[in-house]
Amino acid sequence: MLHKLDIAELGERGGAMGQAIGTCVHCGFCLPACPTYQVLESEMDSPRGRILLMKSVLEGHLPVTEAQPHVDRCLGCLACVSHCPSGVEYGDLISSYRDHVRSRGERPPSLKRWLAAMTLPYKERFRWAIRLAFWTRPLHRFAPRALRPMLDLVPEELPKRQDLPAISPAQGPRLGRVALLAGCAQQVLAPDINASAVRVLNRNGIEVVLPAGQGCCGALSWHTGDGSAAARFAKKLMSTIPADVDCVLTTAAGCGSAIHEYPLLLKGTEAEQRAGEMAAKTTDISVYLSQLKLVAIPNLQRPMRVVYQDACHLSHAQRVRAAPRQLLSAIPGLDVAELADRDTCCGSAGTYNIEQPDIAKKLGELKVKNVLDTGASAVVSGNIGCLVQIEKHMQSRSDRVAVLHTVQVLDRAYRGILS
Length: 419
Known about the structure:
Radius of gyration: 21 Å
CATH topology of the domain at 304-415: Rossmann fold
Number of strands: 9
CATH architecture of the domain at 304-415: 3-Layer(aba) Sandwich
């Protein structure tokens, strides 16, 4: 545990940080599971090494500036948590530590981080930022080096808006009523995910409410260490959720993970109890659908093979692994393959592929290679960040495959257009 620095000085989340640090026995089981350790082979770029660095900073033995490059290189994928025999809650430590350093003014400013924070959580700003990037595409090669990774992620075109009604009624007898989180960047980059979710839920007797004014969940802010911004987003989102829904569904793993961290994020505030209620009421759409007796899915016109890619904030943070595979396996004629590196991050990790493009590129290229090795005609995942990252690194391949969300596959199977 911490000695020189009193836990009370670390604020409301000090106990969580101290508990995580004190639980680590430095056994090293996390090393082979950590993507940055795999790429860099540096002890300080492993969970065990970062815990020692953060502990030294908090105790006053090490300047923030010496630890920060290694802490910044952490994806926050939490693969270490899945492989830790001691139960270290590394997620509680890394986000809280980043926020602690930022709140003390000790984290160096970042133009990329600032631009991401000013655009990604706000769908209309983000849409206009992409349009601006379209207009200036011929000048991208002259852009400052720091901005090129962000410009490289700009898609070739934006899909059409898909405005969904505030309430979508169930088909047949109503078996449930849920609130669906629309997300922020996802509404701009892949609006068909929400449309597919609504169609699949309605087909299975579920009424869907899209809460008005919901906005960002705060995941992007919290996972990059801006706790104050994340708390504002969280409180606003919670205020929009109607009381008369059975649960709140997410289609983005990062959003679901962040909402389950609301009790830590809002600890000691007037919203702490509400945060716990929100976390308890929120579940990934794959989990919810797997618990329903689904309407029969038609046979595919011809057999098809897909490979499922585990989103880190679904498999490691939320422990959701079986439900998506169960749903895909329920589609007659669909063969579901497994990846060789199923536990390894694709390199997206929120804004990581913007802030740490070199490491993200290596992880993205490795993920695409392993996808192609399966011979699948589509790769399926449950997080918009993963889909964007894989699509980016698939673009240069002549043998590229389709990149789809789990619920899009179900929707297309129901509609007889999956191919």
